[in-house]
Structure formats: structure tokens, C-alpha cells
Amino acid sequence: QSLDGAGGRRSGYIPIGYRGSYTIGREAQADAKFRRVARITVCGKTALAKEVFGETLNESRDPDRPPERYTARYYLKFNFLEQAFDRLSEAGFRMAACSSTGTCAFAPEQGGPADDKIWTSYTEYVFCRD
């Protein structure tokens, strides 16, 4: 990370991620049931994460982390992705990449409901500021 000469802001990357789950029934398109996002995780340099998220950054899993050190243990005190995206945009960040995975966590052959499958997913967005 470095300081930008014009605005005095640090350049760098902030990945945010979340785990989710959803159930798809027999009529997949009309029957998907999504659960809310339980926790949004934040990675990156401590100083940069604090600049963007301020008091909404929960540091309890990695307290007293030096400002220029990297961490992957922070999370946000709110659970709305749009709010996180807004804060990043207001701080001059843009989305650089996105990745998502999904796996079937509970299949009917394992004793579950005959028509439903429960899927879990992990999605990560990488934001950058030059």
C-alpha cells in the first residue's frame, strides 16, 4: 500500500466474503429459499479496513493488530452486502473480481427430504483503490 499524492488515501485491496445457504425444491426456479447473510468477513490491511468501515468493523477476533499488517479475521457488525458495497464505493474502491462456489450439503439419499436439496455457498468480492 502507498499514499496517493492527490488525495492522501492509501491504495490497496479489500476482499469481503460471506457464506450462504439456500434450498431448492422440485420446481427450482419458483421454489428457491435463500437465508440471510450471517456474517460478512473482511480481509486486508488493518488501517485500510478501519478507514473504510470505521466502527462497524468488528476486530474482536484479531485485536491490537498493527495498522500495516494484513488480517483475514475481521468481520462487519452489519450483514447487508449493499451497505458494505456502498461504503467501499464512497471510499473510492471499485470491484476488481468476484468468485463464488456452491456445494450440495444435504442430499435426499442421505436421509433428507425427498424433493429438497440444501446448498451452501461462499462468495468473495475483491475491491481495489489505486
From TrEMBL:
Keywords assigned by UniProt, alphabetized: Cell membrane, Cell projection, Membrane, Phosphoprotein
One GO biological process term is: regulation of G protein-coupled receptor signaling pathway
Compartmental location = Cell membrane; Cell projection, Neuron projection
Cellular component terms, GO, for this chain's entry?
neuron projection; postsynaptic membrane; presynaptic membrane; receptor complex
What's the name of the protein? BTB/POZ domain-containing protein KCTD12
Under the heading InterPro entries, the entry gives: H1_KCTD8_12_16 (IPR057093)
Q: Which domain of life is it from?
A: Eukaryota
Q: Does the keyword Membrane apply?
A: yes
All residue ranges annotated as the KCTD8/12/16 H1 domain in the record: 12-129
